What does this fold into?
Amino acid sequence: MKLNESFEKTITGESVERWRYPRFFTENIAETALITGSDAQHISKVLRMKRGDLAVICDGNGTDCLCRISEAGESAVVLDVLDRKPSEGEPSVYLRLFQCMPKSDKMDFIVQKAVELGAAEVIPVISKRCVSRPDPKSAAKKRERWQRIADEAAKQCGRGRIPSVGETVAFSEAVSLFDAETSCGIIFYECGGKKLRDIAEGRELQKIDVFIGSEGGFEIEEVELAKKRGIVPATLGSRILRCETAPVAAIAVLMNLTNNM
It folds into this structure.
């Protein structure tokens, strides 16, 4: 089988084959692809890949390239592009997760799983019931860590783009970012709301903004503020989910309702 004429079979023909090759992101793709920095070190020193080995290189804009290594070094790896195809790892819906800051390292888990499930952005939010309230310097460091987690999750799960982790914002600013004309806004409230299937029924959703509370959920005043902006209160059932469980459940259900699972 010639690699340059059978990208479809090699990458997507069988589920096993699709995940066979390591995945990396770079904007430096033309007839060849160039990988530098920590990814180059990972390829050469950790994976011990060498000339002739195959990898999937993504341009970060939804295109996957099947590539063969032509030069491998610790500072740079050059790969020949054999074929290109649209990434199958990107959902049709653009989902932003506005996650109120949880305690401890729960946000690490939330970012990782949100990316795996298809979220396009994760924006940390400070609401009234947040116990974790990092100062600007600490928040910047946390954001760097969360972005690295997002990067690794995107590689692992086959995304065509690397989701971004935004700056930490106050709840009032978070709801102001919602545009009712272009997006569907959903705030999950433990005191009740609509079922997700009722919100999504009959609609071709292209953008969804999801608001999840921290430990203790939202204050009623925050829910009322969200409603004034056109954000709909919703429920995830009769059981109270932990703040790190709720976003996983919500995104999974929404991806299923929009035919992305």
Residues 3-86 form a domain with the Ribosomal Protein L25; Chain P fold (CATH 2.40.240.20). The chain has two domains: 3-86, 94-257. The CA atoms of residues 205 and 258 lie 7 Å apart.
